[in-house]
Design goal:
Aminopeptidase; 8-stranded mixed beta sheet; about 350 residues; about 25% strand; binds zinc ion; 2 domains; alpha+beta
Amino acid sequence: MPGLDARANLLKELTEAPGLPGYEHEIRAIFRRETNGFGEIEQDGIGSISCKKVGDDEGPSIMLAGHMDEVGWIVRHVSDDGFIKFSPLGGWWSQVMLAQRVNVYTRKGVFTGVIGSKPPHILPAAERGKVVEITDMYIDMGTTDGKVVTEEMGVRIGDPIVPQSAFEALGDGKVYVSKAFDNRMSVATVIETLRALQGEEHPNVVYGVGTVMEEVGLRGARTSSWIANPDVAFSLDVSIAGDVPGVDKHQATGKLGAGPVLLFYDNSIIPHLKLRDLVVETAESEGIPLQLDFVMGGTDGGAIHQHKSGVPTVTLCVPARHIHSHTSMIHRDDYDRLIQLLTTLIKKLDRDAVNALAY
Ligand SMILES: [Zn+2]
């Protein structure tokens, strides 16, 4: 897209590409292409991909993990009159789904559908005020003939359904809107951090990993930890931006453009305290603004920190608005600073620095 630099174009490509949990192949291909020449590529048995960048092969192993999957839906059933019933893959709030366009990926191509419900105009007043359940929704493929959907379009049970949404720069050009910043932002961060380390010295071995199936239970983080075998890990994700109307500061503190976020707690991991403090000190000495927050969900760090006998791990984020919808939003400055923070941390983490993290 004209006007976008290389980093923005990679975010555009990664967020617009489809990649449900278990269906991450297009994201994996982009990861493989972008990291070509950076180091040795390895994959686990369920699709996570790792690029090993060696600074010092006697040094500690540092894992950066960003999940490649996004939330979406899969086909459960096609009715005789051509409507698709579906199930969510990952967490969806029904209110952000109705009347949205989606792409249905089949063996015959990509087809547009629209998420529909019984029209409110004919609902009894008592029902009109209620939230429509996902199980009562359907996808309208623009036909009344089930055979058009199953035969001409080739729709089958299990086909992935992904939000249709185009990347756009808003406001002063630094706020980006697209689907799936959760968590293509982090896949891009892994790639750009490896790129920033090209030609630089670093006293360790870095495994940049794109994990699979985080949205359904941190599955690829668990398996790919066996490849990286990390001494220290950084799990990367988006956090909830609280800078919108109606949110109290104690619910979510993150603000777009105010810097990357260090999670002091999420439901899957309590950060390693010494590593957490090293991140805070490093941000301060580098002049990188750092926001501190809680997230009430889980992250890949939840699986990684329990690998083998335990791995010092923290989760770093970029705050995002409207996640798990067609229109998530992040600020470019937060993204650039996260890459800068990670690059600085990696250069610091020699064997002594890692040994000093021991409790
Ligand atoms: Zn995520």
